[in-house]
Recover the amino acids of this structure.
């Protein structure tokens, strides 16, 4: 996608907005890549709201990394990591949210920097980071507990709601290039995939898949190893799940994949959806 100049927002985000989600793989690294980094992307993005994952930085460090865009009028809501160098989620927006909530009422997870939501007019936007997991380990058990508690929170929503983020789950065979080789690996386990089925059955819409039916990808994450990026051997693990009227307003969804490997500023690419 060619980034478009920002054209201004609607008075009501539920009627018209562009939302992007990106795992930055370290906010200081992403903004520190001069000439081809996150700050250059922010200068031209058409997004009104940007969900960030894996900032891997404190509030102070995150604000310092984004100081130039914050001085230009962007607002930042941020949940810093509970463990140094891990997780951290945020929401950048061109308009100040009416309310911000960190976590979803979980005694176990609210302090880990994995979930934040911001309320705008008649829509709530959330940014989530679901950790990778590893099959048949305590780490995977923790992932399932997180998804279980998050799922209960999502089902309780009654207003227009969009949750974006890095789920570290590929839903179907269309969402991962090498699905046969990953049937027993975290990220493509039956229980993880069934959780997404459950959210869709509860009324959420995978808007990127709805706008790109029946095709491989579009992938949003590629390993730095080998030639995964050049061969587009990726995973679609960065989602917009939407409920309410706004889900039906999703009109265009694109993965802002860099033209070449050297121009990447994260191992993920922004996933941007226009809601009109």
């Amino acid at each position: 996608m060619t980034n478009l100049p920002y054209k201004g927002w609607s008075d009501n985000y539920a009627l018209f907005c562009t939302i992007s989600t990106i795992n930055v793989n370290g906010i200081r690294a992403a903004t520190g890549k001069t000439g081809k980094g996150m700050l250059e992307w922010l200068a031209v993005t058409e997004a009104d709201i940007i969900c960030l994952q894996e900032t891997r930085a404190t509030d102070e460090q995150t604000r310092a990394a984004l100081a130039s865009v914050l001085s230009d009028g962007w607002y930042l809501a941020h949940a810093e990591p509970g463990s140094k160098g891990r997780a951290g989620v945020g929401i950048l927006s061109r308009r100040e949210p009416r309310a911000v909530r960190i976590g979803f009422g979980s005694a176990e997870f609210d302090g880990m920097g994995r979930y934040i939501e911001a309320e705008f007019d008649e829509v709530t936007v959330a940014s989530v980071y679901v950790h990778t997991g590893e099959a048949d380990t305590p780490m995977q058990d923790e992932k399932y507990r997180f998804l279980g508690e998050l799922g209960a929170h999502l089902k309780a929503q009654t207003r227009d709601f969009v949750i974006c983020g890095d789920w570290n789950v590929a839903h179907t065979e269309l969402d991962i290039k090498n699905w046969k080789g990953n049937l027993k690996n975290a990220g493509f386990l039956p229980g993880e995939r069934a959780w997404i089925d459950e959210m869709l059955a509860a009324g959420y819409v995978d808007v990127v898949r709805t706008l790109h039916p029946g095709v491989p990808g579009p992938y949003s994450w590629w390993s730095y190893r080998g030639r995964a990026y050049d061969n587009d051997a990726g995973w679609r693990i960065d989602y917009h799940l939407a409920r309410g009227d706004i889900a039906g307003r999703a009109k265009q969804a694109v993965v802002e994949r860099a033209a070449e490997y050297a121009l990447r500023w994260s191992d993920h690419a922004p996933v941007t959806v226009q809601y009109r």
